[in-house]
Amino acid sequence: MKILTVANQKGGVGKTTTAVNLAVSLSALDHRVLLLDLDPQCNATSSLSALLPDQPRRDIYAVITDYFQNPATPVSFSLTPTTLEPLFLLPGSADLAALEIELSEHPDSRVFLRKILRSPLPPSLSPPRPPSSPTADPPLDFDYLILDTPPGIGLITVNALVAADTVLVPVQTEYLALEGLSQLLRTLILLQKNFQTTLDSVSILLTMFDSRLRLSRAVRDEITSTLPNFHTSFSTAVCHTIIPRNIRLAEAPSHGKPILLFDPSSTGAEAYLDLAREVLNAESRQ
Amino acid sequence: MKILTVANQKGGVGKTTTAVNLAVSLSALDHRVLLLDLDPQCNATSSLSALLPDQPRRDIYAVITDYFQNPATPVSFSLTPTTLEPLFLLPGSADLAALEIELSEHPDSRVFLRKILRSPLPPSLSPPRPPSSPTADPPLDFDYLILDTPPGIGLITVNALVAADTVLVPVQTEYLALEGLSQLLRTLILLQKNFQTTLDSVSILLTMFDSRLRLSRAVRDEITSTLPNFHTSFSTAVCHTIIPRNIRLAEAPSHGKPILLFDPSSTGAEAYLDLAREVLNAESRQ
Ligand SMILES: Nc1ncnc2c1ncn2[C@@H]1O[C@H](COP(=O)(O)OP(=O)(O)OP(=O)(O)O)[C@@H](O)[C@H]1O
Ligand SMILES: Nc1ncnc2c1ncn2[C@@H]1O[C@H](COP(=O)(O)OP(=O)(O)OP(=O)(O)O)[C@@H](O)[C@H]1O
Ligand SMILES: [Mg+2]
Ligand SMILES: [Mg+2]
Predict the structure, then answer these.
(1) How does the average pLDDT of chain A come out, rounded?
(2) Do B47 and A10 touch (CB under 8 A)?
(3) A214 CA to middle of ligand 2, Å?
């Protein structure tokens, strides 16, 4: 099971769009995927609203508070199935915003998510039987956990970075998004030192790229030339796949569908399928 | 002196672009303006880097920690002048991110900014003499304080909302930015009740608007039709000015200049001058 966290403290760079569409593309390529919505805005959850049952299951806030109230008993996830077998969701909650204050003094405040996700999976993690095959016994785990995070570097994002095997950093190909990149890499180095993270790779994903714009090309060239200067114990690379600016990606959430179902022939859908294949290839090479 | 806070928990909607270019446009129309960068990313500060002296003055973090360490003595701001005469800056600091944890238990944790900005202005607030007129005695206050805030609704943003007379909410004309709007209005109502804020108006500013796109038009129509349903004790309205998507606005920060100096004839420069006039008109009507 690989934990992939999508993060960037800069706002509006395509974190949610990437987490949702990468999760869907990986499950379309027959991998068992759990998408976790760790943003109080719940944008990942609403981006898939057309694929969810009417009664959503437990949300991430309930799972986290359960862990703190009953640390000795295995956490019960009772995940939300989607109409896209084998994709499951742990929905977001507006109450997550309160956690920053509630937990800031707790000794586990930066590692609780890693403990929740990595502890020996209790039987209750086994997702509910997919509606299509009531008799099959669902497997106990997933191939990928994809974590969508809020902007900023608050407690929730720190937890998601500490829990990650891989961090995917969407960077909008504009100047202000470029500025924050070195700050984020320094934060990752610090977290690895302080919490012995299992982080082995950081990938920069260029998003909203418009090859006609000088700015897009300039930012792409700047990132590909400066990244090698960062000496880290984890590997850093720029994804081969580049996500183009494609209005269909911005329209899809208003229909509650991922791009693969909203407009499968769009450049956005193709790009996220390419990204999924690149993620799968990277893993098979390790 | 009017305190105008630019805020929206959704990331990447044009908060910094609006705070910087509105502050510059108001000062170009001969008003004394102080821009405060409350975002640990310091994007507002870097967007004006070409107008700043080599040695920046005290930053916002130094001012806030000074207030907490020496509550009895007047705060010394020593503001940073810019090459644009009546515009001054209180630069941002990456250390702001630490405040969320450091101050969360303090009794003043949500009102400290209002106290710092509204207390009888100590002589030290008087901005340094503008380089061009060493003998003139600078006035003690400003016509406008413009506050740029980070994404999310953390401690810093709450403080900026509690201190505000007016809140300007940039909303990118896309679906996910629309979703968070009602959550923000509910937060403002709650803050007004709990902290007796002086908030008298909330204005929604449509940004990155592309009239050729169905999505832009649909989001604009949705906002203008649903806003009147929000019954609040402060007035809410959609700004008459709409900021178009204009690549020059995204290029300007890489030159450290506001749009008015980077490309004065661009649609972006015209729109922010229109917005400044609209803000001035709204005030003269009160
Ligand atoms: N490649 C793309 N082409 C066009 N629009 C895009 C693309 N990727 C994302 N968008 C749109 O840009 C906006 C910002 O994207 P998104 O919300 O995914 O960013 P985010 O980093 O998750 O934001 P936040 O910081 O608020 O969590 C959304 O309206 C989204 O629909
Ligand atoms: N009207 C516009 N047309 C084109 N690009 C724009 C426009 N307004 C802002 N931008 C660009 O869009 C990106 C996001 O804008 P900006 O950084 O101002 O948003 P923000 O809300 O301050 O983001 P954050 O949530 O990270 O603080 C930036 O790259 C900016 O240059
Ligand atoms: Mg998001
Ligand atoms: Mg900003």
Answers:
(1) 89
(2) no
(3) 17
B215 to A174: CB separation less than 8 angstroms, yes or no: no
**Distance from C-alpha of B51 to C-alpha of B8, rounded to nearest angstrom:** 27
Residue nearest to atom 6 of ligand 2 (CA): B250
C-alpha A32/C-alpha A148 separation (Å) is 17
Q: Which amino acid is at A285?
A: R
Residue A36 CA to ligand 3 center (angstroms) comes to: 12
* Phi–psi pair at A83, nearest 5 degrees: -70, -10
CA angle A179, B127, B260 (to 5 degrees): 50
Q: For B76-130, how does the pLDDT look when each residue is reduced to its tens digit (9 = 90+)?
A: 888 999 999 899 999 999 999 888 878 888 899 999 999 999 875 444 444 554 4
Q: Which tokens is A121 given? A: 């999976």
Contact A42, A59 (CB under 8 A): no
Would you say the CB of residue A246 lies under 6 angstroms from ligand 1? yes
pLDDT in tens, A196-251: 888 999 999 999 999 999 999 999 999 999 888 887 889 999 999 999 999 999 99
Minimum-distance ligand 1 atom for the alpha carbon of A250: 31
Helix or strand run (H / E) with residue A175: helix A175-179
Give B-chain residues touching A151 at CB under 8 angstroms.
11-12, 150-152
